């Protein structure tokens, strides 16, 4: 079978391989495009295995929420350089993965490798072919997802493409401020939702630090107690979502903003490339 321009273009579209490589493989397979796809994927796996130990510190965070607001995910896809991360092929791969994740609504990174993309290939097969094509190691840095039966999920992706937040809300009117609260979490990075959620060990550690600071002030007992109380309240507010001052209006706490809009935060996921996620 003759190797036509159309065959080369089809193979390139399916594999992202270069034109010369596509033409060479089509000649070797006598124009059998399915055999050519398998051969390129096998070659991609072999090359990917050679690059698997290379450090991947760059990349992008991508995320999405379903139309009904009951499923959402955040994924960190790492590569070696910003040049590749900013490229069209890396972006297109991220978009293809995002579409497949939303279709199948997977909940763990373990399910990602065998996830079927729209072209019939698995995520892992396509990832290894991308490694061969782009010449860089590509790895999943993080994958988190949440599926809820009630309420709604809202998402915020930072413009630097290296962090994102997924928040679970309940309440009848909260959708008006849902994205703003997700953005606030991305900026202010609370460790818990409510002050009551702070760990006893962390609180005790802070109490010891504050007590040492107050003791050095040599203030009268009543004043020292007020200073201590103020330090404790500030620590609780600074580290809890509900206690923090809302970034778009510091005169109002996030807790007050939610109450004013008849809404509640039931959980959130905060993912930053290269860091441990905060999942509440």
What is the structure about, briefly put?
This protein has 10 helices and 9 strands. By secondary structure, the chain is α+β, with helices and mostly antiparallel strands. A hairpin with a 2-residue loop joins strand 6 and strand 7 (249-253).
Give a structural overview:
With 280 residues, the protein is an alpha+beta fold. Among the domains are: 47 residues, Ubiquitin-associated (UBA) domain (Helicase, Ruva Protein, domain 3); 95 residues, 2-Layer Sandwich (Tetrahydropterin Synthase, Chain A); 41 residues. The chain has a 4-stranded antiparallel β-sheet with strand order 4-5-8-9. Strands 1-2-3 form a 3-stranded antiparallel β-sheet. The protein has a two-stranded antiparallel ribbon with strand order 6-7. A hairpin with a 2-residue loop joins strand 6 and strand 7.
